[in-house]
Design goal:
The complex is a heterodimer. By secondary structure, chain A is an alpha+beta fold. Chain A is built from six helices and nine strands, in the order E-E-E-E-H-E-H-E-E-H-E-E-H-H-H. The chains are: A alpha+beta, B alpha+beta. Chain A: It is found in: Nucleus.
């Protein structure tokens, strides 16, 4: 079983883009660039809103239907948090380049054709949000995302946060959920067989991972609290990444 | 003049506690860039940055850095002429954006017969007149009310360097040395180099001068101060190194 490490992010990695971010977590590494608001093509112009164009490029190859599917899901959720009404007839272009995916130790990857797994979606989503924050594109709220898989284990089913490729392979269902910083559900995509009760449990687990309140000054209770060891604290990670960026931008003040 | 001591980091959508919002009975509250008003009474940040409040002027805004310029009326910018139309020039403020229009007669004491003829690629120092989200921006090189150019107009010769928007704002501050912590230009002038500068809020700085090496050295100094995040000490060292190379 692969060990899940803490998420890492670097902002402003591409100097020529308006905003960029490189994010890695659970074996997935994605680099995103954001350009905008810039002039849109005539066919993409919307009279009252900006057009959000998401392009997903896999680590190898050009990308096919699977990547287009991920793009359309990301586009519909990112359009909800970006303030698109501020930039009519413009384009906000987000390009996501997958650099690394975790290896499945049980499968010979040289024989299997590479195609993006569903579980990469939270990494893609998070990188896009970080790149948008780095570019200074006005947004309604920030968002965090996570993947949960329901894996049969010893006769019962267990929900696994940040599933490894092996987990995804043997899982009954894989779910990706994203929440905004106002604790609203932004994205909910699922693959596989599951009951409504199982989805409710997945929802609670994902909400716990994505919407953990930021630790207050008396943070000792949070550190010792064993209930919240389901996954990394994504909101806190997002905030501390942005704190570093703003502090380095405003070093002269 | 002085701002509050607490300067919290805000992310888009963060709630702002009411005690941070300045209140004054006489002046209305003015919201600067990075904030939006959600009726009836919510003020919400839209970018990630530092929330700054000025109790004297009863205003608040978010201080952040980025590279994509959004035109606002009253800004002084450096534009490049793309082509000439029947009554206007089409100019570019930043790449991949719709061109801004500059009327042919929008120069000091210009008539149809005596107007400046600008070729594509020429640079102008202009002021943004009209900029809203529905229309292409418009710029002018003369003040409408007084008819004088006040330093606006064509920039002949020299070179243009790109800087981040925040660095351009620091250069344009009234007290760029004390509050903006940018000393490079004063230091280079103090060493006896002869050059002139025009700073555009769209992240462009034009440097003009007779000696090309001086122009390039000034441009390098600005670029390295911006990209390297140099403080006052670092700027002094940088200027010393550049001047040594010139002599």
């Amino acid at each position: 079983m692969t060990v899940t490490t803490a998420p890492e992010a670097a902002l402003g990695v591409l100097p020529r883009a308006d905003g960029s971010a490189k994010y890695s977590h659970a074996g997935y590494t994605v680099t995103a660039s954001v350009n905008g608001p810039i002039e849109a093509q005539r066919r993409d112009e919307h009279p009252y809103e900006a057009h959000v164009d998401v392009i997903v490029r896999p680590a190898a190859g050009v990308g096919g239907t699977r990547e287009r599917h991920l793009e359309s899901i990301l586009q519909s959720s990112l359009t909800q948090i970006i303030l698109v009404k501020n930039f009519p007839r413009s384009l906000i272009q987000i390009v996501l380049q997958v650099e690394d995916t975790p290896e499945n130790d049980y499968v010979n990857t040289k024989l299997v054709q590479a195609s993006l797994s569903f579980a990469i979606m939270p990494a893609l989503f998070q990188t896009a949000v970080l790149a948008l924050l780095s570019a200074g594109v006005p947004m309604r709220a920030t968002a965090t995302a996570t993947a949960v898989a329901i894996v049969p284990q010893d006769g019962t089913k267990k929900s696994v946060v940040d599933p490894s490729p092996r987990d995804v392979e043997i899982a009954q269902s894989v779910h990706v959920l994203a929440f905004t910083s106002h604790d609203e559900l932004l994205l909910a995509e699922s693959e596989g067989d599951f009951t409504v009760k199982e989805w409710d449990d997945v929802y609670e687990t994902a909400k716990d991972v994505c919407c953990r309140p930021v630790p207050t000054k008396e943070g000792m209770e949070m550190v010792l609290d064993d209930e919240h060891t389901n996954g990394p604290d994504l909101r806190h990670f997002l905030r501390s990444t942005m704190e570093n960026k703003v502090a380095s931008d405003l070093h002269w003040k | 003049m002085t701002t509050t001591t607490s300067r919290p980091l805000v992310l888009p959508g963060d709630p702002i506690s009411p005690d941070l919002i300045p209140s004054s009975s006489s002046k209305p509250l003015r919201l600067g860039p990075g904030l939006r008003h959600v009726p009836p009474s919510d003020i919400v940040p839209v970018v990630a940055g530092q929330l700054i409040t000025n109790h004297q002027k009863n205003s608040m805004w978010v201080e952040y850095n980025n590279n994509r310029y959004l035109p606002t009326p009253g800004d002084l910018i450096i534009a490049q002429i793309l082509r000439s139309g029947p009554d206007l020039y089409y100019t570019l403020l930043s790449p991949h954006t719709p061109p801004a229009t500059l009327p042919h007669l929008s120069f000091e004491s210009a008539t149809k017969k005596t107007r400046p003829q600008l070729a594509p690629g020429a640079l102008v120092y202009a002021r943004v007149v009209l900029a809203n989200k529905h229309m292409d921006p418009e710029i002018e090189c003369v003040s409408q009310s007084t008819g004088k150019s006040d330093g606006l107009g064509e920039l002949k010769g020299g070179m243009v360097f790109e800087v981040s928007l925040q660095f351009a704002r620091r250069l344009l501050m009234a007290k760029s040395r004390e509050e903006g912590k940018v000393e490079v230009l004063e230091l280079l002038g103090g060493e006896g180099l002869a050059f002139e500068i025009a700073v555009g809020r769209n992240g462009r700085v034009w440097v003009g001068g007779e000696d090309v090496r001086v122009v390039v050295a000034v441009g390098r100094a600005l670029r390295e101060t911006d990209e390297g995040g140099l403080g006052v000490e670092g700027q002094r060292r940088l200027v010393r190194g550049l001047v040594r190379g010139l002599k």
